[in-house]
Amino acid sequence: MNSDPSEMNSGKLAVVILNWNGKNWLEKFLPTVIRYSPKADIYVIDNASTDDSVQYINAHFPSVKVILNEQNFGFAKGYNEGLKHIEAPIYCLLNSDVEVTENWTEPVLKIFKSSEDIAAVQPKILDFNRRNYFEFAGAGGGLIDQLGYPYCRGRIFEKIEEDNGQYDDETEIFWASGACLFIRSTDFWEQNGFDERFFAHQEEIDLCWRLKNCGKKIFYTGKSRVYHIGGGTLSKQNPEKTYLNFRNNLSMMLKNLPFPDLIWLIFMRLSLDGIAGIYFGLKNGFPHLWAIVRAHFGFYAQVPETIKRRKKLQKTDYFQSKWLVFRHFL
């Protein structure tokens, strides 16, 4: 069904799953989302799936509201388009390959109530297949280093920590993972949502960076946990994932860094990307090396528009680590 927006305005938390040919994930995880989210409205935004995802939802989960996008818009525009039809004080943007747990929403909503300055919150994200380890996309909360490399508490580059309760705290972070992102709808739309040029990957980091430049806070709570499979749409072995990550990271830096730091940081990153290209090529094959080359040309093509999107206020005082890439690899 393609519900009318006026029928969807309940004022509740909206748990919103973006779907593209993900019937297998919906079969596996949607029942748990419904069971453990009794105080939320559940939505699925469908990105023009060619499988029978929509028919399956309508037949088996009539309480779930389905919003139909005209085509596969990717993560960024897919959510931007779908969320236009949902009115709720808080959105939870949830990947279709995530298993939620009992009472997973309560600690998050409690943090939102503590301060209007808190724009987004992320729960603890663990690996569905190795349940005592953190998951790559988000782990114990996202941070960023001096050179613009995103990393997480519990995950630095490809090194994953075991969960021993070290991140059971509630604390401010730099970015919240798009795998399970709770965000105030007003803050989301004041930033015009995700940057649709990103298509997928790092658009949530860019959004959190823009929010922080406006004085908002991003939080993490270890009192809520979910389990993420990861790679449900693009696996780590897919060169397109490499392309999007490298291109989007550079565009994000150009958009959000203050000018005095911008020139040398971008130059440094372009140089390091060349080294990373050789590393990726040797490790994963030539398509990944070529993906990084393409990412640089994709970044250059976006430069004029990215500069237009720069705000007046940019900061660097939330970089949590200096020279992380050198300390980690060398």
> Mean of residue pLDDT?
90
User: How would you characterize the largest beta sheet?
Assistant: 9 strands, mixed
SSE series: EHEHEHEEHEEEEEEEHHEHHHH
Full CATH superfamily name of the largest domain: Spore Coat Polysaccharide Biosynthesis Protein SpsA, Chain A
At the third CATH level, what is the topology name of the largest domain?
Spore Coat Polysaccharide Biosynthesis Protein SpsA, Chain A
Low-confidence spans:
1-10
- The radius of gyration is 19 Å
Principal-axes shape call: globular
β-strand amount: 15-25%
Q: State the oligomer.
A: single chain
- Range of helix content: 25-40%
Description:
This protein starts with 12 loop residues before the first strand and ends with a helix. By secondary structure, it is α/β, with parallel strands linked by helices. 45% of the residues are buried. Helix 6 runs parallel beside helix 7 (239-256). It contains 10 helices and 13 strands. The strands form 3 sheets. Strands 1, 2, 3, 4, 5, 6, 11, 12 and 13 form a 9-stranded mixed sheet that branches. A two-stranded antiparallel ribbon has the order 7-8. The protein has a two-stranded antiparallel sheet with strand order 9-10. The protein has helices spanning 23-35, 53-60, 74-83, 106-114, 185-190, 203-213, 239-256, 259-284, 286-308, 324-329; strands at 13-19, 40-46, 65-68, 90-94, 98-100, 118-127, 142-144, 150-152, 155-156, 159-160, 170-173, 180-184, 217-228. It folds into 2 domains: 5-228, Spore Coat Polysaccharide Biosynthesis Protein SpsA, Chain A (Alpha-Beta Complex); 239-329, no CATH class.
